[in-house]
C-alpha cells in the first residue's frame, strides 16, 4: 500500500486503518511481524510486511508490531559516495600513521633529554664534531696544495717535454683529492645548517611537550 502521510506520525493501527480491507489481509502477520516503509520516487511512503520492491536501492525504515521504528537502513552508496568514503578512510589511515609516528618521536625526545639545557649541550657537541671535520679537510687541502706546489715547480723543468710519469700522476692525484676534500667541506657545511634546524625543532617540540605535560609510556 502507498501512504502520503509522513511515516513518523504512523502507528501500526494507523497503517492498518489506512490499509482498509487490504489491511485486514495484513492483520495476522502485522500483529506479530514487522513493516518496511520507504519514500518512493514521488515522495510518498510505501509500506509492506515484506520490503516493497520500490524500496530496493532506497533508504527504508523497519517498524515493529507497535508501529515504532526499530531501525533505519541507509540507501546504498553511489559510486561517487563510495569513492569519497574510500578517500576519507585512506586519509584517516594516513593521519593515524602520522600521529603514531609523532607519538613515537615524542617519546624518544622525552627519553633522550631531561631539559632544554641537555638539548643545547648535545647541539654544541654535534656542531663541534662537524666543525672539526671541516677543519681537518681544510688542513688536508693545505697539505695537498703544498705537495702539489713542489711537483708544479718540478714540472717547470719539463716545458715543451713529456712530464715524467711520477710527476704527472702526483699532479693528477692531488687535483682529485683537493676536489674531494672541497666536496667534504661543502657537505659538512650543509650538515651544520641541518643540525641547527634539527635541534631548533627538538627544542621547540620539547618545550611544547613540557607545557602539555606529556610523559613517555
Structure notes:
- There is one protein chain.
- With 217 residues, this protein is an alpha+beta fold.
- The protein has three domains: 2-73, no CATH class; 78-112; 114-211.
- The chain is 66% helix and 9% strand.
- It contains four helices and five strands; from the N terminus they run βαββββααα.
- The chain has helices at 12-32, 79-112, 116-155, 165-212; strands at 2-3, 35-39, 45-48, 60-63, 69-73.
- Strands 1-3-2-4-5 form a five-stranded antiparallel β-sheet, with helices on one face.
- Strand 2 (35-39) and strand 3 form a beta hairpin.
- The longest helix has 48 residues, at 165-212.
- The protein is elongated and about 115 Å long.
Give descriptors for this structure.
single chain; 217 residues; alpha+beta; 3 domains; 4 helices; 5 strands; disordered N terminus
Low-confidence stretches: 1-32
Work out the number of β strands: 5
Mean pLDDT figure: 82
| Percent helix | 55-70%
Shape: elongated
Give the spatial strand order of the biggest sheet.
1-3-2-4-5
Q: Could you say which structural class the secondary elements and strand pairing correspond to? A: alpha+beta
Terminal CA distance reads 62 Å
Instruction: Work out the strand percent.
Output: 5-15%
Counted up, domains total: 3
Count of helix runs = 4
Largest sheet: 5 strands, antiparallel
Q: What is the succession of H and E elements?
A: EHEEEEHHH
Radius of gyration, rounded?
41 Å
